[in-house]
Write a structure and sequence with these properties.
There is one protein chain. About 30% of the residues lie in helices and about 25% in strands. It is α/β, with parallel strands linked by helices. The chain has one domain: Alpha-Beta Complex (Spore Coat Polysaccharide Biosynthesis Protein SpsA, Chain A). The strands form two sheets. Strands 1, 2, 3, 4, 6, 7, 8, 9 and 10 form a nine-stranded mixed sheet that branches. It has a two-stranded antiparallel sheet with strand order 5-11.
């Protein structure tokens, strides 16, 4: 199994904290960074390769990983258009993979139990949390019969549930989504979410909603998010 961590963004909403560091290298607790926490947790499972997309401050990110995780197998995929495109382009640049994958954003903070639920899933899945209020700016999902039918930051219908970009994807489902991403990028649709492409495939693949029911899994987009997650980790 391979793990893809998306790290191409600039993290401008964290202001001075990302002037000299990619967002995923922002410190959390006891000198731990968002990225080091994610890698340390996921490496407890049978992951044979970490695929890291890079963009902003590519050299800083690579050096950090090489110094802190010298014994793991990393492949870097650089998106030279990181300041002009969304992460859909970073995914498009990833070479073909013939394996099941774990896919997550590099600013995602979670715990061991969350990772266990995702990685040990027998089906393709993405995490939701039915116990929290739907977020204003993060992903929301529409669920039918436990299957995700739509994911968007702009979905505010009564049946919307909070959703975070932490996926397990069987290889067949990953390839189907990746091919649709390629179609989007070839047609110049590079400033949308990769989930826009996924939303066109709900009749072709089944991605199950994995309800975390309160387990930690949140993105750190701004200083308020960072403050909240630091308090949780204490």
């Amino acid at each position: 199994m391979k793990c893809i961590i998306l790290n191409s963004g600039m993290g401008t909403r964290l202001e001075e904290l990302t002037e000299n560091n990619p967002k995923s290298l922002v410190k959390l607790h006891n000198n731990e960074t968002i990225l080091s926490r994610a890698i340390s947790i996921i490496s407890n499972f049978e992951i044979d390769e970490f695929i890291i997309t890079t963009g902003y401050l590519d050299d800083v990110l690579r050096n950090y990983i090489d110094v802190n995780f010298p014994d793991f197998n990393f492949t870097y995929v650089h998106n030279p258009f990181y300041n002009k495109t969304n992460y859909i382009k970073s995914i498009d640049l990833i070479p073909d993979i013939d394996d099941d994958i774990i896919l997550l954003h590099g600013d995602l903070v979670f715990n061991q139990k969350t990772a266990e639920k995702v990685i040990n899933s027998n089906t393709s899945c993405v995490v939701i949390d039915s116990t929290i209020n739907i977020p204003k700016d993060d992903f929301k999902a529409k669920i039918e019969d436990d299957i995700v039918k739509y994911i968007s930051v702009d979905y505010f219908e009564n049946d919307a549930v909070a959703c975070q970009p932490f996926y397990k994807l069987k290889n067949k489902d990953w390839k189907t989504w990746k091919n649709k991403i390629r179609d989007f990028c070839e047609n110049g649709k590079t400033n949308v979410y990769a989930e826009n492409a996924l939303n066109e495939l709900t009749n072709d693949i089944n991605i199950y909603a994995l309800d975390l029911e309160g387990l930690l899994c949140m993105e750190v987009d701004n200083k308020n998010d960072l403050k909240k997650v630091k308090e949780i980790l204490k």
